[in-house]
Amino acid sequence: MIKFIDDLAGAIYDFIKFIFTSICYLLAGMVIVGVPLYLLSFVFEKLN
Description:
- It is built from one helix and no strands.
- By secondary structure, it is mainly alpha-helical.
- The relative contact order is 0.07.
- The chain crosses the membrane at residues 18-44.
């Protein structure tokens, strides 16, 4: 019974870790793509 609970806790931990890692990668990608696009639009706005 203890092994089952340990395995269940490990599976829940892995799932939460996967979700957290996915959200972090998504946010990092949004920052990496969004900041240069914002700066580029800012430059074009000043040139106009």
